[in-house]
């Protein structure tokens, strides 16, 4: 069975070592991806190799709404044999050894190394360029070794995640939107209700935008990356121009100002206001109604102001906006071809 969406990137098609491979509804595999034997890709999962390699070993399980991605021209994403990844997780531009278990809602960041036989507990964040040693249970934000693994613990946790993954069901397709030609909306994204997209906006693979009561308004050059989930239940959500939402961000009603970057796996509570020029670190969470003041790096659970933004961080945020504008143009052409 092939993914719902199988796309080349820079004229390179994904490759699969052998069948059987099980690919869930709404799953997407893109670009320089190589998948081993007996893979299981959950509903709405995304493997995106657009600018570097994703290499996945044998007997890999990827939970629903989870994302594997690279850092273009910097870091590949390398995953060993017999690795199980839970739901709503991000494995980004890192290396994962054999026989590892990465539980639900984890975020593994660029340049990290997870050695063989590691259990990463649910909700953990592996900071960039961290090494987690073999044979340990690791947890936290930042993730650290807690204790040695007990006998059969890895196998038990993997089996529990796989049972949950097998019973998880994707939602149905979203509304049939008439998309402005200056906007990219991935074929596997789901948009429902009053969703407004300004020119230059992009909504990537397996995102869910559900405007239940209030609208979702996305400004010019905003990029909403793979597996983000935006749900409104009250006044609505406004995301202003030149802002980036990283992979697997969750947000409810509120406002995100211009020129912001919301890091991978972040959770924004209802009523959160993010002022202009804010960087929210990956894996962070806000309390309902929290206000993130302009000009700061915020992080933690709940988020707190960590340091003033400097020129290097602002330049990185601007590069991300430009990079995803280019991705949006490229994918718009690929989907149309």
From TrEMBL:
Q: Which domain of life is it from?
A: Bacteria
Q: Which Gene3D superfamilies match?
A: Hexapeptide repeat proteins
Coiled-coil blocks: none
* A Pfam family: Hexapep_2
Q: Specify the protein name.
A: Carbonic anhydrase
Q: Which organism is it from?
A: Methylobacterium tarhaniae
């Amino acid at each position: 069975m092939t993914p719902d969406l199988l796309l080349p990137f820079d004229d390179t098609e994904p490759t699969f070592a052998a069948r059987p491979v099980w690919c869930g509804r709404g799953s997407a595999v893109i670009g320089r991806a190589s998948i081993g034997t007996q893979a299981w890709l959950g509903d709405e999962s995304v493997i995106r190799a657009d600018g570097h390699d994703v290499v996945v070993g044998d007997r890999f399980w990827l939970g629903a709404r989870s994302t594997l991605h690279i850092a273009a021209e910097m870091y590949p994403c390398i995953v060993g044999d017999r690795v199980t990844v839970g739901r709503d997780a991000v494995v980004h531009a890192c290396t994962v050894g054999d026989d590892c278990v990465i539980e639900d809602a984890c975020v593994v960041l660029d340049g990290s190394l997870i050695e063989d036989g590691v259990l990463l507990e649910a909700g953990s964040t592996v900071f960039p360029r961290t090494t987690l040693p073999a044979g340990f249970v690791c947890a936290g934000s930042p993730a650290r070794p807690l204790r040695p693994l007990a006998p059969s613990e890895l196998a038990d946790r993997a089996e529990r995640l796989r049972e949950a993954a097998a019973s998880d069901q994707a939602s149905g397709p979203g509304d049939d939107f008439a998309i402005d030609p200056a906007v990219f909306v991935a074929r596997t994204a789901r948009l429902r209700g009053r969703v407004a997209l300004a020119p230059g906006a992009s909504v990537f693979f397996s995102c869910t935008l559900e405007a239940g009561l209030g609208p979702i308004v996305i400004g010019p050059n905003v990029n909403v990356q793979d597996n983000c989930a935006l749900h409104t239940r009250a006044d609505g959500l406004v995301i202003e121009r030149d802002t980036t939402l990283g992979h697997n961000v969750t947000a409810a009603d509120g406002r995100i100002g211009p020129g912001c970057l919301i890091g991978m796996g972040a959770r924004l509570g209802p009523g959160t206001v993010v002022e202009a020029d804010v960087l929210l670190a990956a894996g962070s969470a806000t309390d309902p109604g929290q206000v993130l003041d302009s000009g700061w790096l915020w992080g933690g659970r709940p988020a707190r102001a960590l340091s003033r933004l400097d020129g290097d961080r602002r330049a990185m945020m601007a590069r991300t906006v430009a990079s995803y504008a280019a991705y949006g143009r490229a994918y718009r052409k690929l989907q149309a071809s």
